[in-house]
UniProtKB/TrEMBL annotation:
<protein>
    <submittedName>
        <fullName>DUF1232 domain-containing protein</fullName>
    </submittedName>
</protein>
<dbReference type="InterPro" id="IPR010652">
    <property type="entry name" value="DUF1232"/>
</dbReference>
<dbReference type="InterPro" id="IPR016983">
    <property type="entry name" value="UCP031804"/>
</dbReference>
<keyword id="KW-1133">Transmembrane helix</keyword>
<feature type="domain" description="DUF1232">
    <location>
        <begin position="62"/>
        <end position="96"/>
    </location>
</feature>
<dbReference type="Pfam" id="PF06803">
    <property type="entry name" value="DUF1232"/>
</dbReference>
<keyword id="KW-0472">Membrane</keyword>
<dbReference type="GO" id="GO:0012505">
    <property type="term" value="C:endomembrane system"/>
</dbReference>
<keyword id="KW-0812">Transmembrane</keyword>
C-alpha cells in the first residue's frame, strides 16, 4: 500500500486510519447484527465497509468512511444505541452523509461483496 501524507483538512492520517480500520474490522459485524432491523440502507452500509477496507481506494475516501464506520461501532455516541427506534438515528445520519460524499468510489465489486455477505 502506498503511504500518503495527510492532506490539509484531512481528519485521519495514515496511522490513525489504520487504527480506525482495525477497530471497524473488529466491531462492524457485531454492531451491524444489533442494528440490522433499524438500518434501512444495510446494503449500502456493507458496501461502504468493503470500500473502506479496500487498499485500492484513495486514503481520503477510506478515512471518511472509516471515521463514519468507527462512530457506528463506537459504544458511546450522541444518542445511545439502546434507545429503541431512535438509537441509531445519529449513526444513520453520519453514515448516510459519508456514503453520499464518496458514493463514486463505492464500486460494483464492493456492492457484490455486500450482497454476498448479506446472503451468507
Amino acid at each position: 500500500m502506498i503511504e500518503h501524507a495527510p492532506l490539509d483538512g484531512e481528519i485521519l492520517g495514515p496511522e490513525e486510519a489504520r487504527a480506525a480500520e482495525d477497530r471497524v474490522r473488529r466491531k462492524f459485524w457485531p454492531t451491524l447484527r444489533k442494528a440490522l432491523r433499524q438500518v434501512p440502507f444495510t446494503h449500502d452500509l456493507v458496501a461502504a465497509y468493503y470500500c473502506a477496507i479496500d487498499p485500492d481506494v484513495p486514503l481520503r475516501v477510506r478515512a471518511t468512511l472509516l471515521g463514519a464506520l468507527a462512530y457506528f461501532v463506537a459504544p458511546i455516541d450522541a444518542i445511545p444505541d439502546l434507545l429503541l427506534g431512535i438509537g441509531f438515528t445519529d449513526d444513520a445520519t453520519i453514515l448516510l452523509g459519508a456514503i453520499s460524499m464518496v458514493a463514486a468510489h463505492i464500486t460494483d465489486r464492493h456492492r457484490a461483496l455486500a450482497k454476498k455477505a448479506l446472503t451468507d
